[in-house]
Amino acid sequence: MTIDFKALYPKLINLLLDTVFVVDEFGQIVFISDACEQLLGYSASEMTDTRILDYIHPDDLDRTLAAARNVMSGQSHSDFENRYLHKDGSIVHILWSARWSDQDRLRIAVARNVTALRREDQTRNALYRISEAAHAADTIRTLCDGVREVIRELFPESDLCLAFYDAGRGMLSVPDWSAGPSSGWIDKPMETGTAIADVISAGQALVASRDPVRHGVGLNDLTQPDGANWLGVPLMSRDAALGALVIENPSPGTRYRKADQALLQFVATQLATVFERKRAEERLRFMAHHDGLTGLTNRSLFYDRLEMALRSAGRNEGRLALLYLDLNDFKKINDTEGHEAGDQLLIEMARRLEDCTRDTDTVARMGGDEFTVLLTDVHGHHSVETAVAKISELMSLPMNLEGKAFHVSCSIGTALYPEDGLTARELLSKADANMYLSKRHTT
Predict the structure, then answer these.
(1) In terms of CB atoms within 10 Å, which of 109, 125, 200, 211 comes out highest?
(2) PANTHER family under this entry (predicted)?
(3) Domain containing 227 — which CATH number?
(4) Going by C-beta distance under 8 Å and a sequence separation of 6 or more, which residues neighbour residue 98?
């Protein structure tokens, strides 16, 4: 049997799983095999007589042109990789083998889709990077910064929103990236009916529409013209949602796919595991340095802060003040109203002390009903007297305990550095002695 190879040749080309491109010296596609539809979503008739550059990812355009020039100069390529844009807007990673036919003035290339391989590489790299970020991060907040860098690499054209959910308060805590790395958190209520609320409530991934006004929230309405450009996945732990990891793309026509969802869910799963561990570590660190009842700095951390403040004041010729406080008649209230009422009294007094001091000051519970306040950067006796008067006034305001109104005053002793002592022991002793003098005057 005689075989007509001339007729068979195009059939064989179109049976190949890889796509065959033939491009002229001006970048025009003169032939493309049928596998192009599987590769880029376009039929061969749609791509023939169009410019090959129209399908290349914009970020890869310059190096692709450089590679094409090399091929046309006679240097064959067998391992060139770049990104193309699929008809549905997604990115396709392609590995090329290309040669130049000088006689026909044509570039002949075979393209293989390696997107799945690159996804596997990205997944492995994401796991490594998150593990690395978890190891390097001292706090949950710094961990978020590390995760943000991972997401930027995986989804370079998308914005990230990472939110943790407090079910008791109905609040979302979002890293404040506008003020720089590790700067703090923004707390805001979780609005029902939004896409992020649905992700957290259902504990399931969701593709939705980006809200152009509110970052990360999502409209959950795919009838919008830019629908499906918001993707959120839950941060799950023990069947409860800790929050959500969200990416959204402001570019019109963006469509997130199942592969994007799977990759983002993988990152979210790793993050949830690390978050739980970091949260437990932070809780242990907090318990080691704070009073279990009031949440104030405990005696041990207060001594460390005082020593640090004294060293700083000594170097910079600064001044500081130490206040020692004792609640008057606390024992009577504790004995007559019960320990629970006494605990509530201590908690309320701790909050009041925090409210009337600066963020740079340190408030501590030393034990029982005794508190200390370290005032840094003071400007003499007058500023200390003003602070003491403010504290006394706020602490003496009526308080409701178990439905009863109580008036609780406090005795306050002060010590100034360097007038009343140069060491922590000297200042504490002076402030304690002055506190007992104040208590004798009020009894």
Answers:
(1) 200
(2) DIGUANYLATE CYCLASE DGCT-RELATED (PTHR46663), GGDEF DOMAIN-CONTAINING PROTEIN (PTHR46663:SF2)
(3) 3.30.450.40
(4) 67, 71, 76, 77, 80, 107, 108, 109, 110
What gap in Å lies between CA 46 and CA 287, rounded to an integer? 66
Report pLDDT for 356.
Answer: 85
Question: Could you say which of 113, 137, 159 is where a domain stops?
Answer: 113
129 and 247, same domain (yes or no): yes
How many domains would you assign to the chain?
A: 3
Q: Looking at the structure, do residues 150 and 185 belong to the same domain, yes or no?
A: yes
Residue 109: predicted pLDDT: 92
Asked if residue 277 is part of any domain, the answer here is: yes
Own/partner pairs, 401-405, CB within 8 angstroms, 24+ separation = 401/333, 401/337, 401/341, 401/344, 401/345, 402/337, 402/338, 402/340, 402/341, 402/344, 404/337
Q: Reply yes or no on whether 369 is catalytic.
A: yes
The answer to whether position 70 is within a domain reads yes
- Token readout for 41 is 């979503």
Q: Are residues 156 and 226 in the same domain?
A: yes
Range(s) of the domain holding residue 80: 5-113
Nearest to 41 by CA among 247, 227, 255, 210: 255
**CA–CA distance, 155 with 338 (Å, rounded to integer):** 58
Q: Report pLDDT for 442.
A: 63
pTM of the model as a whole: 0.55
pLDDT in tens, 109-155: 999 999 888 888 877 887 787 777 777 777 888 888 888 888 888 88
Question: How far does the chain reach from its first CA to its final CA, in angstroms?
Answer: 122
- In a shared domain, residues 306 and 328: yes
* Same domain as 123, residue 86: no
Task: Write down which residue in 267, 288, 309 finishes a domain.
Answer: 288
Longest dimension (CA), the chain: 122
Give me the residues of the chain with pLDDT under 50, please: 225
**Which of 145, 226, 260, 369 is labelled catalytic?**
369
- CB burial string 1-25: b at 16+ within 10 A, e below: eeeeeeeeeeeebeeeebbbbbbee
